[in-house]
Design goal:
homodimer, alpha/beta, 6 helices
């Protein structure tokens, strides 16, 4: 296992960077872009990336902020996320730039790239799909679902979403709206909803951050098992 | 592999029977009750049962009609289903009786019983859960979801549902209503929705039976993979 950390790059005046996790074979592997929670790149994402390297993938953990936040800096991270979310067209450009970065990595097979994301990152992957990018698949874990308000495009990638039904940030009507949006966009989609489960269920550090946000080990296992199968199907 | 076919038994003036599929070990295995589509017990259900025996289960295919229908007898089968659906309390009694039958089989470990069902059978398994039965889990494939209109009871079993979002028999509001019902009933539930997919997606013979009913091989594979994981978790 090797880790390369890129320096943050400027993009339209914003910082942008990544951490790349890969095996030591020197071979190009199917690539998974991993978009992080509102807190940016943390050990949570690094742990997920290491597990995925064990499954045979190279993993690019995207850094949309160009900086790191400590756990007590939640307020600053929320503000940074909001700044990005206020310009969804600009955010889309950054997401597409990350995809280009991923495809340029020697350790990633540029023809086989998927993206997964968590919370804010779960919205990032949907926005990448909504941009019409032709990638293998995207999977959203407890993602924000609200559409970017940009002109709809045909979605060319498979989409999977894993959702806690009691997520206070994403009410049932937002799930139904996503289903309608994805149906209209013509894509192959699946939404997996889990009962008695809130936001942030994959994240042991999420519990207590806000009401309705709670780690759930059983649901994390179920969602990861489904995601593993999804990625295998995407790269088949 | 062995097959035992029970003669139809009377229950409150109705016929009731089953076909039992099991290996030849003579051992009691975790039991899966399989409730069939509106067409009753056919080679579709027998094929599913044989695959599940290969996974280490004994499978009791329930026969709620006490008779068989040929594929051209769809109208008669629909009428038989409607007769059962018109008395959901009576139907519940029959479902609980089937559970008793399953537990009484030498080839089934009475403490480890789950139920799966398809279409009408997908509603049967939900009704068994709604009856408050303490079983390991129930899984519904393209099931009818409307509640029985009986007094709600706490649901003690894990529930999984696999649903084609374009199913003309089950609109989005019925899915949201099921989620609310299961949440209120306090159970561990998961609903897996698949886009661009209609009713009957596990059934190669379903295509053309009615508009919006169509076999979908990819979705069948996805739902079965999820169900296999679900059953393994239920019996762990």
């Amino acid at each position: 296992m090797a880790l390369q950390r890129s320096v943050a790059q400027g993009l339209n005046g914003h910082q942008l960077g990544h951490e790349l996790f890969h095996d030591c074979s020197g071979e190009a592997r199917p690539g998974v872009i991993l978009f992080s929670t509102v807190m940016g790149v943390t050990d949570l994402e690094r742990g997920f990336a290491e597990r995925l390297v064990g499954l045979g993938y190279s993993v690019l953990v995207a850094d949309l902020y160009g900086r790191r936040f400590a756990s007590e800096q939640r307020g600053e991270a929320m503000a940074a996320m909001q700044a990005l979310r206020e310009d969804r067209a600009g955010l889309r450009e950054r997401l597409v730039a990350v995809l280009g970065e991923a495809r340029a990595q020697h350790e990633i097979d540029e023809k086989r790239v998927a993206a997964i994301g968590f919370c804010f990152g779960g919205q990032n992957v949907l926005d990448l799909a909504r941009a019409g990018e032709d990638i293998a698949g995207v999977a959203s874990f407890h993602g924000l679902l609200d559409p970017p308000g940009l002109a709809p495009q045909p979605i060319k990638t498979k989409v999977a979403a894993f959702h806690g039904w009691d997520d206070p940030l994403v009410p049932p009507e937002a799930v139904v709206a996503l289903a309608a949006e994805l149906t209209a966009a013509g894509c192959d989609w699946q939404i997996h909803a889990f009962g008695q489960v809130g936001h942030g269920f994959t994240n042991p550090g999420a519990t207590g951050a806000m009401p309705g946000i709670k780690y759930d080990a059983a649901t994390a296992r179920r969602a990861w098992a489904a995601c593993d199968g999804f990625l295998a199907e995407c790269f088949a």
